[in-house]
Each structure stands twice: as structure tokens, then as C-alpha cells.
Amino acid sequence: MSNPEPTFGRPVQYPAPRLRHEGLDANHKNLAVLIHVAPFAALVLAPLIIAPLFLWLIKKDESSFVDDHGREAINFLISSVIWAFGLSITVVGLIALPVLVVLVPVNMIRGAVAASNGEYFRYPFTIRMIS
User: Which of 16, 31, 33, 76 is most buried, with most CB under 10 Å away?
Assistant: First the structure.
């Protein structure tokens, strides 16, 4: 006699496929990409959040896709500053801070690639203050 499968716990779930915005204007995809990569250009010119915030505030009413990517990128940048500050005041955090320095640009690139493909993107470990 075989043992029945346990009735407790959750079944294994696989990541859901990314949401796509079909029929999207190329200009809106480009704006969403620019929102994600603008912090790279802003490293030299201004604080990281200024360029994406400016682009998002100007274009958010033209496209729900651009609005979503703008809110997500700005929330991620604000969260990154909070995480960096929190990590920098602890000894263990000083060791983990270089990991954050690597993960921030990697995730910005992931967001830009998703926007370029017309996909919605969610940054990990993001505190969503702007909704």
C-alpha cells in the first residue's frame, strides 16, 4: 500500500511569467528604458533619483506602462538609499554594502531590459512608497 501524499504545506510554485503590455508604442518602451538607465548618466551629473524622477513626472500621464516603470524605479532607488544607510551603520552591513553596490546596477539593467521587451518589472527588496 502506498502512502498518500501529505495534505499539508504548499505545492511547489514556479515563477509566474512576466506581464507584457501588447501593442505598446516604441516611444513608450524607450521612455521606460530611459527611466531605468538614467541613474547611470546621473552618476556624473546629479543625484541618482533626479533624472528618473524628472522623466517620470513629465511622462507618467501619457502611458500607464511608463507610469508603472517610473514608480518602480523611483521606489527602488529610494529603497536602495535606505538599505545602504541601514547597512552602513552596522559592522556586518559594511561587509554587505559592496554586494548592494553590485546589485543596484544589475537590477537597473534588468529593469531596462524588461522595459525594452514591453514587460513589467518588479525590483527585489523594494519598499513601495510611491503607489
Answer: 76
The string of DSSP letters for 2-18 reads: PPPPPSSS----PPPPP
For residue 130, CA distances in Å to 56, 75, 101, 104 come to 12, 6, 23, 19
Phi and psi for 119 in degrees, rounded to 5? -105, 150
The Cα–Cα gap between 21 and 8 comes to: 37
Grid coordinates given for 47: 543625484
pLDDT value at position 43? 60
What global pTM score does this model have? Answer: 0.66
Q: Across the chain, where does the E strand assignment appear?
A: none
Cell 551603520, residue located: 89
- Among residues 15, 54, 32, 47, the alpha carbon closest in space to that of 108 is found at 32
Residue extents of the structural domains in the chain:
26-116
Angle of CA points 111, 117, 48, to nearest 5°: 25
Mean pLDDT by 10 residues, the chain (131 residues): 55 64 82 82 63 88 92 91 83 83 91 92 91 84
